[in-house]
Specification:
By secondary structure, the protein is α+β, with helices and mostly antiparallel strands. The chain has 7 helices and 5 strands, in the order H-E-H-E-H-H-E-H-H-E-H-E. Helix 2 packs antiparallel against helix 6 and helix 3 runs antiparallel to helix 4.
């Protein structure tokens, strides 16, 4: 069942896809397995294990984007909401959404335990959340899914806490939408630009 795509090929192939359908080439159990594997094995500072995830599939995924639309409709002027709602309806057409959180209770626990690094833990917490996002994103694409990452928090936080029984101490970081791609990536392969690698890294002591 696991993807046999080589690691660096999967890294290279990971792209942003906005055109998605509600089809899914893998069973729900495989999606759960991918997220569980990331939660278990992606590293965190001092093994603090602060990242949390809520996986929404099918009707629950669609409900999440309906709720998001409701919240934004109350916050935006009509002409601005019309544009935003087109994006929400596009996300709703996908198969699932993963909500990424950081457990602030655990962050504070480690701040109290390691006072020398107290000011560093919020930043380290964001770093591990980003690693979880990247790992899951790459794994889903290796299975044939298209993915995009959204950030409609904090406006939707309280409603989603109520709808999906999310503890208030979990701080939302991102919403990852996925489904079967219906069109190419947001930036075509021949349009993707890369800054010179030699300007972005240094190597010393190589043999």
């Amino acid at each position: 069942m696991a993807s046999t795509k080589p690691f660096f090929t999967a890294v290279k192939d990971r792209r942003t896809y906005y055109g998605l359908s509600a089809e899914c080439p893998i069973p729900d159990a495989r999606i759960r397995e991918i997220v569980e594997y990331a939660i278990l094995h992606v590293p965190s500072a001092f093994n603090s294990q602060t990242t949390r995830a809520v996986v929404l599939l099918g009707d629950e995924h669609r409900k999440m984007w309906d709720v998001t639309a409701e919240v934004y409709q109350q916050q935006l002027p009509a002409h601005k909401f019309e544009s935003a709602n087109k994006r929400f309806q596009g996300f709703r057409k996908g198969y699932g959404t993963i909500l990424f959180y950081e457990d602030t209770d655990v962050v504070r626990e480690f701040q109290a335990k390691f006072k020398t690094y107290e000011d560093k833990f919020p930043n380290w917490s964001d770093q591990t959340n980003g690693m979880h996002q990247y790992t899951i994103w790459t794994a889903l694409e290796a299975e044939g899914l298209g993915v995009n990452l959204q950030h409609y928090n904090p406006l939707i936080d309280v409603r989603l806490e109520t709808e999906f029984n999310v503890p208030p101490t979990w701080s939302m970081k991102a919403q990852m939408v996925f489904g079967t791609p219906t069109e190419g990536p947001a930036v075509p392969d021949d349009k993707k630009e890369f800054k010179p690698v030699e300007d972005r890294m240094k190597v010393y002591g190589a043999k």
